Model the fold of this input.
Amino acid sequence: MKNITFIIFGTLFGIVLTKSEVISWFRIQHMFQFKEWHMYLIIGSAVVVGIVAMQIIQRAKLKSLNGEELHYGGKPFHKGFIIGGIIFGIGWAITGACPGPIFAQIGAGELPAIITLFGALIGAYLHSALREKLPH
Amino acid sequence: MNAFFDSWNWYIAGPIIGLFVPAMLIISNKMLGLSSAFEHICMLVVPKEKQSIFKFNFDENGWKLYFMIGIALGGFIAAHYLSSSPVHYLPEEYHHFPGYIKLFVGGILVGFGTRYANGCTSGHSIFGLSILQSSSLKATISFFVGGLLYTFLASF
Done:
């Protein structure tokens, strides 16, 4: 039952990503070439709304619907945030997709994105296999 | 009504995306973030004795796979029922052979990079920045350093 909630959340998220063309390789190119502000404005306004909402949640000490304390945060910095971040940025520029949009592209009928997904799974596997050897 | 079936403006899409941060927290007590779903899928296909290398936390991240299935559904609905004319999301070159290799290599970088950075655009750039997490700001800046550098160099 809980999982249906997440499928519904995901469906709404996928519709917004697709309709605003966040999943478009062309939009990602234009972002990195500074040709249009579309992507920056989307990310920027999303963050502003997120910050305001979180401030309200923190000040009102809200709990989750089932009465639990909200838990969030807890991503301590390590070198991978920089190195991995740069590696991901390159992949984002090449494929025009970050993780969520890969699935939206496939759903929207851009079937070559299945190759992107296959690559991403191998990449995630490589990270797990090499984790101990990577600088942190 | 036409605007609904065209590409949505940033001031519609951005705030809705931002609202997923409080909505997911309040309704499900989950932090928005998606890239660990890759590990979940890996775990479903590798043999049992190898699964421990993923250090995947089911309680915290098991929902993401369902969210991803929803995203694909959403992409399908948006493209088939909410668009007045077909939209191309990938360039022509990615629809045949040499382009496939670029997608594959780029995909590896996306999967490796997001997991090494412990998050992607949703987990760091949307959620992490919304809770003013400094490590997420460093990750987000790194995403753009990588993307801008590659795009700049690829233009020669």
Residues 134-154 of chain B form the longest helix (21 residues). Chain B touches chain A through 115 residues (CB under 8 Å).
